Amino acid sequence: MSLTFPGRTVRRAVPRAVRPVLPRAVAAAVCLFLLAGCGAGATRTPAPAGTDGAAPTALPAGQGSPEPDGVFPRTVTHETGTTTIPAEPRRVVVISTGQLDGLLSLGVVPVGSTRAEAATMVPEYLTTAFPQHRAALAAMADLGLRTDPAIEAVAAARPDLIVANVAGAQEVASRLSAIAPTVMTRGNGVNWKTDLLLIGHALGRAGAAQALVDDLAGRARAVGEQAGPVEVSLLRIQPTRVRVFGVGSFPGSLLADAGITRPPSQRFAATSEDLSAEELGRADAGWIFYGVQGAAPDARPPALLTEGIGASLGAVRDRRTTAVDDDTWFLNAGPQAARVVLDDLAAALGTG
Known about the structure:
Oligomer: single chain
Shape: globular
Largest sheet: 6 strands, mixed
Strand content: 15-25%
CATH topology of the largest domain: Rossmann fold
Number of domains: 2
Distance between the termini: 33 Å
Order of helices and strands: HEEEHEHHEEHEHHEHHEEHEEHHEHH
Helix content: 25-40%
Strand order of the largest sheet: 6-5-4-3-7-8
CATH architecture of the largest domain: 3-Layer(aba) Sandwich
CATH superfamily of the largest domain: Nitrogenase molybdenum iron protein domain
């Protein structure tokens, strides 16, 4: 199977003109949030341990495979043990965040995949990046939710390799390994590079995985050097919660790679923290990149950013806010998602 490396598409920042309104459910939920008044304090999402924000670029000691690329059988040491893969995988199944992106970036189309809650199985950014695989992606078996994979559907896909991560699928790891050789990556957005490297070892394509990591590291440095001194805030708006994302998130790790600073209120190691209505000031910075679940990036800015505290934020007053694709920035993690995030940063900050 030949390797596929998609070209880079730079997307310009969304202009703040008149736009379609938000989906009613999202708009109503945001209104409820604004009316909630005094809410509970920030609730911390579990953090990846020991991270300073920059995504690790090397596998933990002892992980990976000693066999050269393309050599099978190969033995892979991963997060939960050691797995022997007898032959080059032809029917791969992906369970966890970022793994579909990683496999496609390494030239492999899985036969089955899970999906995020309230999201499609194949994010639009991947069908755009890999149009040559559109039919094969449409034919993939739907394996249920990432957080609750359908084990029977996994078995029915007849995989010869399963990849999952311990952050979301550790409880079903033994059931997966009973179906086919299974490699468990670490998960959590900040570990996307090491997860990709481990998948590369499992596929016998470690060199290609390392090349992707190195290329994106160079792209991040270039974006950061051209962006200059600016603080960037990451905000996600969902029907029942509003969050800022920390240095331990996927987009947070890319900002760290670029050397772009974060506002003091977002320099926490966790993936994200929930905000009450009164805490919305923590979302302010020199520039706000925000995603709204269920809304396209060209939708009208949400009431959260045009009324009350939101309207008083410095970035909002200065028209330094950029709507981004929620699916790509906040629900996925992988090489192609990283390209989109970096291209969005470059376009908005004037470095495209």
